[in-house]
């Protein structure tokens, strides 16, 4: 498989009932809340959607691109730091 030359991007991923450990083991991902993750990847939205669908077998799935890290409050500890460390890539 060829390595993508696309830029690194953030995606918001809602993966209802997905195996969180599998998702985090295969992607640069952080858990924001139950079933809600941020992923930093060179994959396209479609590629990420299909990869998460096939790997984690979620009951429901949403993958949405983010233009930058979002403003948020009340998410999992360490999530803001995860975004800030990757925002300068």
Topology:
Blueprint: E1 9-16, H1 20-26, E2 28-33, E3 36-41, H2 45-56, E4 60-66, H3 79-86
Antiparallel strand pairs: 1-3, 1-4, 2-3
What's this entry about, in short?
The chain is of the alpha+beta class and 89 residues long. The chain has three helices and four strands. Strand 2 and strand 3 (36-41) form a beta hairpin.
What does this structure look like?
This protein has 89 residues and is of the alpha+beta class. The protein has one domain (17-86). Helices cover 30% and strands 30% of the residues. It is built from three helices and four strands. The protein has a four-stranded antiparallel beta sheet, sandwiched between helices. The two termini are 23 Å apart.
- The H/E string reads EHEEHEH
Secondary structure category? alpha+beta
Give the N-terminus to C-terminus distance in angstroms: 23 Å
User: Strand portion, in percent?
Assistant: 25-35%
Q: Choose one word for the global shape.
A: globular
